[in-house]
Amino acid sequence: MEHRIFSYRGLFQWWSYTVSHGQLLLRSTKSSDRPTQIDILFKNVKWVRLRTLMKDLEVLETSSDPENLVRDAGVSVRFFLIRSLDHEGYVVAGNVVSDESNREYYDDSPLLPKID
């Protein structure tokens, strides 16, 4: 069973991966098609199978886990199916959140804690 968490149009790319807390940030910057920037943050990431560039992203949570990755992770994680126009991958992580804002290309993500 699949449950859509969110979907966004635009070109998304791996923006950062932080080893501490296993945080993967995907970002779609402003464009002529969309005047906002979108950040998607996966927390407590255990497994990833994604392209580095993806167009028109849909994030779903599913109970289907063909490789038993959730069970093998041994912690409280979920299986997120990631669909784009020409790719389907996944992230096994504890949670996913998103933010759509007027921030600029190099602005820090509000989803990540600022480290001084």
Commentary on this structure:
By secondary structure, the protein is mainly beta. The chain has one helix spanning 69-73, and strands at 2-18, 23-28, 37-43, 47-49, 53-62, 78-84, 87-93, 95-101. It has one domain (2-101). It is built from 1 helix and 8 strands; from the N terminus they run E-E-E-E-E-H-E-E-E. An 8-stranded antiparallel beta sheet has the order 4-7-6-5-1-2-3-8, with no helix packed on it. Strand 2 and strand 3 form a beta hairpin.
The first-to-last residue Cα distance is 42 Å
Tell me the β content.
over 45%
- Helical segment count: 1
Strand order of the largest sheet: 4-7-6-5-1-2-3-8
* Basic shape: globular
Mean pLDDT: 92
Radius of gyration: 14 Å
Tally of strands: 8
The tally of domains stands at 1
* Contiguous uncertain segments of 5+ residues: none
Which keywords apply here?
single chain; 116 residues; mainly beta; eight-stranded antiparallel β-sheet; 8 strands; globular
